[in-house]
Amino acid sequence: MKKQTEHTPKTEEGFDLKIRSRDSKPVTIHIPADSLASLEKIAAGRDTTVEALLKLYIGQSMRQDLAKLSADRLLEKTAQVLTRHIRSEKEVSAILKEIRVETVS
């Protein structure tokens, strides 16, 4: 287990930030000038670069989307299993609806 040092970067929430080197590729995007100006202000306020801020935003959004995809796949598999064991489509739908309600709250 790696010993934590004072130099371990932290997230805004105070969690250790584990940085690992990964292959990367350059990407060119066009951002409206006013949005870029806003990004520059935010980055300056966080004492970081616009590139790092964009990577943060992309990473956060991507994790949310991947979590949703995973949850959707789980519900789909759950529906398949329930359908094999329960004959009533209405009952299966009610169970899936209850699962969705319980996981949202």
Give a short summary of the structure.
Helices cover 62% and strands 0% of the residues. The chain is built from 3 helices and no strands.
Search tags:
single chain; 105 residues; mainly alpha; 3 helices; elongated; disordered N terminus
Helix percentage = 55-70%
Poorly predicted runs: 1-5
Strand content: under 5%
Count of DSSP strands: 0
Helices, by number, come to 3
Largest sheet: none
Rg = 21 Å
Structural class, by secondary structure, is mainly alpha
Oligomer: single chain
What is the element string, with H for helices and E for strands?
Answer: HHH
- What is the approximate shape? elongated
Mean pLDDT value: 88
- Could you give the distance between the termini? 36 Å
Structural notes for this entry:
The protein has 105 residues and is mainly α. It has a domain at 33-104. The radius of gyration is 21 Å and the shape is elongated. The protein contains 3 helices and no strands.
Q: Topology of this structure?
A:
Elements (H helix, E strand, L loop, with lengths): L32 H13 L4 H36 L3 H16 L1
Helix pairs in contact: 1-2, 2-3
